[in-house]
Amino acid sequence: MRTQWYKNAVVYQVYPFSFMDSNNDGWGDIEGIISKLDYIKELGVTAIWFSPLYQSPDYDYGYDISDYKAIDVKFGTMEDFDRLLEECHKRDLKVIMDMVINHTSIEHPWFRKALESPDSPYRDYYIIRKGRREGDQLLPPSNWESSFTGSAWERIGNTDEYYLHLFCPEQADLNWDNPKVRDEIVDILNFWLDKGVDGFRFDVFNMFSKVYPIKDDHSKKSFQKGAPYYVDGPHIHEYLNELYNRSLSLYDTYTVGESFHPSDEDAYAYVKEENHELDTIFNFAHLDADNIAGKKFFWKPFDLKQFKKGLFGPQKTYYRDGWNTLVLENHDNIRSVSRFSIDTGKYRYEAATMLATVTFMGFGIPFIYMGEEIGMTACKFRSIDEMKDPVSHFVYDLLCKYHIPKQLAFRFIRYGARDHARVPMQWNGSVNGGFNRGHEPWQCMNPDYKEINAEKDLNSKKSVYRFYQKLLKIKKTNETAIYGETEEYAHDHRQVIAYTRIYQGKTLLVMGNFSRYKASFRMPDGYEYAEVLLNNYDSLKFSEGKAELKPYQAVVLQK
Ligand code: TEU
Question: pTM of the prediction?
Fold first, then answer.
C-alpha cells in the first residue's frame, strides 16, 4: 500500500490566514489558495502542508480546533476544500493536513460536555484533577508550566478542579490514555484519508502521553517545569504505532511529527522505519543557534557550529533506517534571512539562496514556508499592539511584570515573535501587497511589500524564486541529492558550512559562506574540475585547492 513517495518530496507550507484573501474580508481563504496553486506548482514542490483549516475560535489561530471534521467558515466550506484537494491532485501536488490532537479547543463539544456534568464520560477525555489545598489557598495540581508561560493548569469555574493545558488556557490537553480518545482520533484521521488527503503533520505529537499519577517536577534541568512528565511520555511509541496500524498504514500516507525537544534516543525511535511510528519528524535544534537555551525571544550572537551540529546530527542518525526533514522557517519562526546575524540590507538575495542551498541539499525532505521562496524578511513591527499572536502578549506581559521597561520588553518580543511569519504574503506592490483588494488584513502587512514581493522577485535578475526552482529540480531528480550519505567538512570553520553527499560512486560537494566577508575553504581533493550544478554568483574562484567564496556565496559541485 505504502509507496514511500515522500522520499523525494518537497513540501510547501501554507498558513491559510495569510496566503491569499479572495473575498477581501481580511482573512486568507481556500478560494485564494486555489488561485495560487500554479505559483506553488511552478516553484517545483510536490506537496503542500496546510496549517489548520478546521473550525476554530482562533485563540491560537487554528491550533485550537472545535470541530475536526469541519472547515472554518472564514476559509470557506467543505465543498471548497474538496475542490482544493482536487485541484492539488490535478497538478500532482500531494496534500498534507495539520493534525492538532494533543489538545482541543475548549469550545469543542467534548470539552463542553465534560464540564456540563461530573458524571459525563467526556470528563475522562481530558486531564482534570483536584487542586491542592494549602491553608485557605487552592493551588494547581502540580507545578507544571505551559509552553506559553504560566501554570499549565486552569481552574474550572469556582470548583476545586483544574484542567491541563500545555499551551493556551483555551487549548485543553486530551487524555490519550483513554482508549475512547484514541478511537476518536483514528476516526478523524480516517475521515480525511477517505477523502483522499495524502498525509498529516502531527502538532507537538511527543506530548500526547503523560506520566500519571501527576506529580511535581523537582528537576533543575527541565526545559520547562513538568517537561519530563509530558515530553516523550511512557506510552508515546505505543500510541503512534496504534495510529499506524489502525489508520496510516491502510492508506498511501506520509507523516511528519512536530516534536517538542525530544531526547535523541526517542527522536530516532519515532522515525526508525521498522518501528512503524512516523515517517519523519521535524528537527529544530539548528534554529536555536541564535537564541539562549531554546528560548526564542532571547538573543545571542549566531553560533555557526551549533547550527551545523543541529543540522547534521539527524542526517547522520537517521540515514540508514529512517528519513529526515530540512527546515529553515515555519509559522512559528522569524524569517530566516533576518536572523543568524545576516546582513539583509546588502545581501538579501545571496543570503536567502545560500541558506536554502546549504539546508535543502542535505539528506531529507525540504519544507519551504510560504514567502521564504521570495526572501521575505522580518516585519518592522512598531508596537506590541500590531502583533496578534497570543504568545507575544503572554511573554510581553510577563516581562513587564518583572519590571522590564516596556520598550525593552517589546524589543525582546520583536526578536523572536511568531508574528513575523504570519503577516500576509506579499504578491505584488499594489494595495496590501496583492493579498486582497484593500480590506484591512487580520494581521498588519510588512511595510516592505513594495520592495519585496513575488511579482518583483520574478522579474528581477536576482530572483530567489528562480534560484529555488533550480535547487528543487536538483533536489528531486538527482539521486545523490536524494539518497546520498552526508559527510561534514570544515566543522570548526567560523564562516563556512560544507558537506558532501555520496551515493553509488557519485559525490556532491555543497558549500556556503555564512558571512558578509570573503571566506576561503580547503575542499576535499578533486573538486577543482568538478561540474558546477548550482551557484548563487556568476563565477567561482579556486586557488591552490581552496574555494574562495564571496559573501554568502553557495555552490554545489558534482563529481
Ligand atoms: O508549536 C509547538 C511549539 O511548542 C512551538 O513551536 C511554539 O510555537 C513556540 O515554543 C512558541 O514560542 C505547535 C504549533 O506549531 C504552534 O503554532 C501552536 O501554537 C502550538 O503547537 C500549539 O498547538
Answer: 0.98
